[in-house]
Design goal:
- Helix content is 30%, strand content 15%.
- By secondary structure, it is of the alpha/beta class.
- It folds into four domains: 170 residues, no CATH class; 178 residues, Rossmann fold, CATH 3.40.50; 195 residues, 3-Layer(aba) Sandwich (Dimethylsulfoxide Reductase, domain 2); 132 residues, Barwin-like endoglucanases (Beta Barrel), CATH 2.40.40.
- A six-stranded mixed beta sheet has the order 5-4-16-15-14-6, covered by helices on one side.
- The longest helix is centred in the first third of the chain and has 19 residues.
- The radius of gyration is 26 Å and the shape is globular.
- The two termini are 39 Å apart.
- Bound molecules: ligand MGD (2 copies), iron/sulfur cluster and molybdenum atom.
- The site of iron/sulfur cluster (SF4) has 13 residues, from helix 4.
- The site of molybdenum atom has 4 residues, from loops.
């Protein structure tokens, strides 16, 4: 049998063609009768029980950081309608948690032709696309025997549980069952960081002593001004009860002036922005330096705050042993190593934003008080995004707005969440294996694991790895191929099955990552399982949701818990894994544990009835670093000095000791949050004749990463495209709607051009998450941005620079109606 993957070649504007392919699938035909739109029903039927056997609460668990409750109406064992939350109101704190288009399109996902229906085993070479159906018995036996073989031959550190975020919102249905299985079997090589926040996560400890959240977005009602760097809540937290709802309401009811710093005129800029500051990608640290330069020149900085709470803004607060002229002020004044004054003219040249505007912006940010400076995560998902993230913290310090109502500390907004007990990944204090690598450089660990060291590759818990990755479990993840930078490097490395010897992929949709598994297991969706959904937190309200099994597992699918129990039995560790509990008994246990720590939490029965449980932050609005601001002596930060370290001595030391072999520009660590001209950054774009455009990859409305990206209705509403500025388009004879090729030295994609002034000149954006779909010439007609991205871990976090790449764009075919 050949690959069970349907022909995914999605030609442009070909929704009709695509849907007819999908319509040919047996799975869809079988359920087509149930795919009618809710809009065609009477109002009563659409929201009532009329004609259905039951309505079940569950939720959309995709990793969009919202978590919307859904009500699934079921008839004859089939989901016939998906309805949004009907509890709550339109008041802050009680907002109705309305699902977005993706969540509401759940039926198309449950009954998608891409659903994996049987366990599959590859029969050809890895990645070749030849498969046969196997029994669950054979699948379990093969996985258990490979686990045993790899453990006996190479040890537990040769086993890898891959990063993934497909069911982030779940609890037992999250991704915990597989790590629990692997930990019960002696553990696995762990990872730190994630694909979302690797660089900012790595930056936090040096400046703030650990992860910090800024004030809640509700608290912005106390702000005179909010400045959002690369932060797009209206597109990336799209729930009606989520940050989208809060930001809109605060803007409308309190009129807080809002400035958006983003190379793209985002949905947030469209809806709530008063001013758009389009800068070149990867240049936020330069903009910040230019802004603070003006503040210092005009004495607008909050010097008292800098003196009392910070280290290294001035020479006098540098830690002992720091060289002369290593303060941030010296950096601004050109007394540091580079000898360059960070004037607005200097910043304008790097960022592309005019010096006069930088001056005006600096004065406004320094004088509008309180002022909430925040950043999303687009800023840091760059080559050396660590420094850009730290620079924005520094701006918040320079204006002294940290830890006060209406202020902000330059991180992403904080929120309140209910402390729901999580399904335990291991028993005891710590997992059995302590060694970790970054979540992103696993491909190096497959290729040359034993060469990886602490100071070169960021290995933690050991000076070097002893063994490479030999067995991978890829669960609820499409980062094996689709979501990982440079699809081709990954494929070449995986193709050699003497390196990583065994890969099992577990999903409910046959994704491009499944193509590279050895065994692929068909998972249930969360609508076919029971769970306690921890819920989400939005500003100052948290919520939890009842996760009901609305329908029986479709086809020959199984829950993660059942799969792991079967494998555990074969490995002789069933008791350790299950603790004698069924999935439902674990749920009861989760309720008991949660209630023990949080008595206000409802019982199982109560939550089943209410569907959604909301809880308001008892402390009012979340104010990031409030305690530290109030009393820095009593509540010091976890930095060496206990203060905000604008100059970091540990980073200064690491800059001397960490190794960057065979590096290109920009791979360096600096004690200060300096601007760095990185590989394929704004500076290189000026001189690179072959690839002169900076390509970023914003998170898109039509999907959550690659989740939902395969559904015809989502594709129709949100087709894949590349945003390109009219000036750049004209130079290339490209018009709106044309089909263009976007390519780098790594690969080529073909997609539709969206010619728009909503993107800065010299920049293009290809929304990330489209499914990698090579045609016979290897051109990715799905338009996956990771076909053109580079695999190049960032210097400190070893994280993914998912918004850094230089590309060229050329016309492929003129659009004609
Ligand atoms: N609809 C939808 N929602 C999602 C997701 C999704 O795929 N779809 N994914 C979810 C997940 S897991 C995550 S991690 C979050 C991601 O949340 P973010 O990381 O905040 O989202 P991004 O779209 O990557 O980036 C936010 C903005 O930063 C801009 N940007 C890019 N580079 C730069 C830069 O150098 N400087 C500045 N100032 N701005 C820059 C982008 O144009 C974009 O508008 O979103 C979550 N929500
Ligand atoms: N170039 C570039 N690349 C990026 C980014 C970028 O900004 N630029 N963003 C990065 C970010 S922030 C992230 S978080 C990653 C996200 O990348 P991933 O974590 O891979 O997320 P998804 O692409 O949504 O894939 C999740 C998979 O989980 C599956 N799934 C859902 N529910 C279940 C379940 O219950 N059980 C099982 N077994 N499977 C399930 C879905 O079908 C889907 O195939 O992508 C990263 N990639
Ligand atoms: S994708 Fe996010 S906003 Fe949309 S329904 Fe799901 S949880 Fe809600
Ligand atoms: Mo993410």
């Amino acid at each position: 049998m050949t690959s069970p993957v349907i022909d995914r070649e999605v030609s442009r504007r070909s929704f009709m063609k695509w849907s007819s392919i999908a319509g040919g699938s047996a799975a869809l035909v079988a359920t087509a009768a149930h795919l009618g739109m809710p809009g065609t029903m009477s109002a009563a039927a659409a929201d009532g029980m009329e004609g259905v056997d039951g309505t079940f609460w569950n939720a959309c668990l995709a990793n969009c950081q919202s978590r919307c409750p859904l009500r699934l109406q079921v008839k004859d064992g089939t989901v016939v309608r998906v309805l949004p939350d009907n509890t709550g109101s339109d008041e802050l704190g009680d907002l109705q948690i309305r699902a977005c288009v993706r969540g509401l399109n759940q039926r198309e996902r449950i009954y998608s032709p891409d659903r994996i229906k049987k366990p599959m085993k590859r029969t050809g070479k890895r990645g070749e696309g030849k498969w046969e159906e196997i029994s669950w018995e054979e699948a379990f036996d093969t996985i258990a025997s490979n686990m045993k073989r790899v453990k006996d031959t190479y040890g537990n550190e040769a086993i890898w549980y891959h990063y993934g975020s497909g069911s982030t919102g779940g609890n037992i249905t999250k991704r915990g069952t597989w790590p629990r299985l692997l930990n019960s079997y002696g553990g696995y090589l762990g990872y730190y960081g994630d694909y979302s926040t690797a660089q900012i996560t790595a930056a936090f400890p040096y400046q703030y002593g650990g992860w910090m959240a800024s004030n809640s977005l509700e608290d912005a009602q106390n702000s005179k001004l909010q400045v959002m760097f690369g932060n797009n809540p209206l597109e990336t937290r799209m729930s009606g009860g989520g940050e989208l709802g809060v930001v809109q309401k605060i803007r409308r009811e309190h009129g807080v002036r809002t400035i958006i710093v983003d190379p793209r005129y985002s949905e947030t800029a469209v809806d709530v922005g008063d001013e758009w500051v389009p800068i070149r990608p990867g240049t936020d640290a330069a903009l910040v330096a230019g802004l603070i330069y003006v503040m210092v020149e005009e004495n607008l900085q909050d010097q008292d705050f800098l003196d009392k709470y910070c280290v290294g803004f001035d020479e006098k607060t540098l830690p002992e042993g720091a060289p002369k002229n290593s303060s941030y002020r010296a950096y601004l004044e050109g007394k540091g190593e580079d000898g360059i004054e960070k004037t607005p003219e200097w910043a304008a040249d790097i960022t592309g934003y005019p010096a006069a505007k930088i001056r005006r912006l600096a004065r406004e940010i320094a004088t509008a008080k309180p002022c909430a400076v925040t950043q999303g995560w687009g800023v840091q998902r760059h080559a050396n995004g660590e420094n850009n993230a730290r620079a924005i913290f520094t701006l918040a310090a320079a204006i002294g707005q940290i830890g006060i109502p209406g202020g902000g500390n330059g991180a992403r907004e904080g929120n309140f969440s209910i402390p729901v007990k999580a399904f335990p990944l291991f028993d005891g204090e710590a997992p059995p294996v302590a060694t970790q690598i970054s979540c992103f450089n696993w491909i190096d660990a497959i290729d040359h694991g034993p060469e990886m060291t602490d100071v070169r590759d960021g290995v933690r818990g050991k000076e070097k790895l002893d063994v490479g990755i030999k067995l991978m479990v890829v669960n609820a993840s499409n980062t094996l191929i689709n979501q990982h930078n440079d699809v081709h490097v990954t494929q070449e490395t995986l193709a050699d099955d003497t390196k990583c010897e065994f890969i099992v992929v577990i999903d409910h949709q046959w994704t491009p990552s499944c193509d590279w598994g050895d065994i692929v297991l068909p998972s249930t969706t969360n609508f076919e399982e029971n769970d306690l959904i921890p819920g989400a937190s939005c500003s100052d309200t948290g919520w939890s949701i009842w996760g009901a099994k609305a329908i029986e597992p479709l086809y020959d699918t199984k829950t993660g818990y059942d799969m792991c129990t079967e494998i555990a039995r074969r490995l002789g560790i069933e008791e350790e894994f299950t603790q004698g509990r069924t999935q439902e008994e674990w749920r009861t246990w989760l309720f008991e544990e949660t209630k023990a720590g949080f008595p206000d939490f409802p019982s199982e029965k109560e939550l089943e009835e209410m569907g959604v449980f909301r809880f308001r932050n008892p402390n009012g609005h979340f104010i990031g670093m409030k305690d530290f601001r109030e009393d820095p002596e009593a509540n010091p930060l976890m930095t060496p000095s206990g203060k905000i370290e604008i100059y970091s001595a540990p980073l200064a030391e690491m800059a001397e000791t960490w190794v960057f072999e065979g590096i290109t520009e920009g791979d360096k660590l600096t004690a200060l949050p300096e601007h760095i001209d990185t590989w394929e950054g704004a500076l290189e774009a000026r001189t690179n004749k072959d690839y002169p455009l900076q390509c970023i990859a914003h998170h898109y409305k039509g999907r959550t990463h690659s989740s939902y990206a395969n559904l015809a209705k989502n594709l129709e509403a949100h087709p894949q495209m590349v945003w390109i500025n009219p000036d750049d388009a004209e130079e290339r004879d490209i018009r709106n709607g044309d089909i263009v090729d976007v390519f780098s030295s790594r690969g080529r994609i073909r997609t539709e051009a969206r010619v728009t002034p909503r993107i800065a000149p010299g920049v293009v954006s290809i929304p990330q998450g489209a499914w990698y779909t090579p045609d016979k010439d290897g051109v990715d007609v799905g338009g996956n941005v990771n076909t053109v991205m580079k695999y190049h871990p960032s210097p400190l976090a070893k994280g993914n620079p998912g918004h850094t790449s230089l590309v060229q764009v050329e016309l492929y075919e003129r659009y004609t109606k």
